[in-house]
Every structure is written in C-alpha cells, then in structure tokens.
Amino acid sequence: MSKFYVALLIMTGVFLFVEFYAFQAFKVLSKEKLYRWIWIVVSALVYIPFLIVFLNYSRADGQTKGFQYAFSLLLMFLLPKVILLVIMFGEDVYRVIVKGIRMFGNSEVTSIPTRRKFIAQLAFGIAAIPFASFLYGVTKGKYNFKVLKYELEFDDLPEAFDGFTITQISDIHSGSFTDKSKVQYALDLVAEQESDLLLFTGDIVNNKAEEMDDFIDIFSKLKAPFGKYSILGNHDYGDYAEWKTKTAKKANFEAIKNIHSKIGFELLLNESRFIEKDNQKLALIGVENWGKGWKQAGDLKKSSALVDQKDFKVLMSHDPSHWEYQVKENDFNYQLTLSGHTHGLQMGIEIPGFIKWSPSSFIYKQWAGLYEEFGRYVNVNRGFGFHGFAGRVGIWPEITVIKLKKKGTTA
Description:
By secondary structure, this protein is α/β, with parallel strands linked by helices. It folds into two domains: about 5-140, no CATH class; about 145-405, 4-Layer Sandwich (Purple Acid Phosphatase, chain A, domain 2). Helix content is about 40%, strand content about 15%. It contains nine helices and 14 strands. The chain has helices at about 5-30, 35-55, 65-105, 115-140, 180-190, 215-220, 245-260, 300-305, 320-325; strands spanning about 145-155, 165-170, 195-200, 230, 265, 270-275, 280-285, 315, 335-340, 350, 355, 370-375, 375-380, 400-405. A six-stranded mixed sheet has the order 1-14-2-3-4-5, covered by helices on one side. A six-stranded mixed sheet has the order 6-7-8-9-13-12, covered by helices on one side. Strands 10-11 form a two-stranded antiparallel sheet. The longest helix has about 40 residues, at about 65-105.
C-alpha cells in the first residue's frame, strides 16, 4: 500500500474518532432526530471539498485557492470538535474511574445525566470560541492590517540618520489574495507612513510569477525618498511546485525576479547598497533565503563583501532562523535584521503587555515582533498576505515602521 493511502487511512481514522465524540456531545443536548441528521449531513459536507482537493492535488498546480479554502473550512469545523472530544473524553475517563472506585468499594453505582449535560453545554460553549474566531479569520481577519511602530536607539547610528524611518512589509503571497480592494487598502496604509525607506523581505508569490500579475499596478505606485529594496523568500524559488522541465522552473524564477523591478523595488541577491544622507551612510544588505532546515541560498559573507565592520548595517534576511544561527553573534555586527517567513502561523493569541503566543513559537525562537540579543535586533514581520490557511486568527497582517534613533539625542 502506498504512503498516500496509508496517510488517507490514518486521517480517516482520526476524523472518525473526533466526529464520534463530537456527535455524542450533540446527542446529549439534542433529542430531536432531525437536528441530529442535520449535524451528520453538515459534518459530512465539510469533508467533501477537502477530500476532492486532497485526491486531485497536483504539485504542478501548487497550493491553489481551492486547497486553501477547503483546508480552512475543515479547520473551522474540526478544531472546535477536537475541543468537544477532549472535554467529553475526559468526562468518560472520569466516569470510568469513579465507577471503578465505587465498584471496588462496593458502593452503589449511579449515573448522573445532569452532570453530563452540563459538561456538554460547557464543551459547546468553549468550542464556539474557536469556531467564531476562525469564521472571522477567514472572512475578515486576513485583511485586518495593523501598523506596528518601533523606535530603536543605537550608539553607532550615524547622526544624519537620527529619526530615519523604515517601513517593512513581508510575505505578500499574492497567489492567495481574493480581494484587490483590500490589498489596495493595505498599500494605502503603507503610503500613509511616508517612511524614508521601504523594504520587502521576501515571498512575493506562493509558487508562480503569474500570481502577481493582477497586483503589479498597485504595488508599483508605492514611493520612498531613499528607495525601495527587496529580497527573495523560500517560496520565490518555485521549489514547492512540480515543473515539467528544469528550464520551465528557471524561467519562472527569472520572471519572479523581474517582478521586483516591475513594481519599482531593487532586488538584492546576496549583495549590498549604501543609503547616503548628508554625506553619511548606512549599509543595506540583502541575502537570499537562508533557513534552518530550508533552502540555504543566502551567503552572508558575499552579501557583506563591500561593507566594513564599522558601518551601521540593516540586514534583510527572510527567515529569522538565519539571525538565530548566523547573525546575532556575528563579530561583523549586524545591528538590525528584518525578517518575515513565519506569519506567526496566522493564528495565536496576542494581548500587548500581557500575552503573545502562537504554535509558531514551538518552531521558531523568534517568530513575531521585535527581539534583542547582544545589543542587536531582529524584527520578525507577521506577513502582509497569507498562505495555507486562508485566514488569520489573532495574528494579524502587519506593516512595520521602525524609527532609528541616535542614542543620547532627544526627539
């Protein structure tokens, strides 16, 4: 039996187990057969789109919008049912233990149906929270853009750049967009920041250059007095799609690189540029993708060949694991690194000053926001677009604005 069918059988078993317990919880609350049949039919219908795209998935097409929405629909209904499973299964385990104790102690064994009904009501109340959150995330949350602003002080920042502003966007993933007007709204937010420098830190598409065709006109209108620069992300190499020939893949890669010039961004491929102001300069360094366990085309040494150790440096590196493993302790002293890649997994809980958590934190030490170690900073942008899951829950699309300050100066 092929691995494909083994995986399908395992998933089917897991889904049936979850559905069984979710249905048991529903049966406790509803005695009407009609409602129970409606529950069964709706549950079955949720799986049909996912099964269709799963059976017809082709790497040649990459991750289509159909796949994203089928997967999102499944998550929306399945995760709340997992909560029902955990609570109701826990109740069953508790009842078995209590029954065993009573039987061992020759006590009278009685059932408590009212308690089970209360547990089911509690379970549905809790499960309603992720269901509503995912429903919002798919319909509204993915375009709930936030502008996050930071002010960073440095001893070695050239005085001419005191108050210099940088806007960073990352992970456009244009192949996932479904509403151009919402994208335009976000770009208007970018323009409103009126930053000195505009930087894009990779993943302009999901797989194919053509995904960006409908958005070139609006991205090309972005302006910044000191320029617009960009780098590649892991998705820009076309490695997550299947190509008929190596030539086709190479042609797509060249077309993706050409997109950057079409929208007025200068693409840095393991190279650097100097941003000059009042006869002073800072170094802007752009590496190709380097990720722990991912494509490692980035060459930090090559990228910095024209830069001196004493120069103030802004490094663009798509994957924050690069900062963790090669940059933060580097003696060459990269004062500020701008990354993206993680999307914060597009789901989590963030309450400023209280809590910031996402499953992404199990994968990346630096997964969203600003981090500082050894006097050096990395900002991990939560991403402009979305991928995989066609929505965002608690981790909103981000536009970052960073103001550079010379330590010891006043505003």
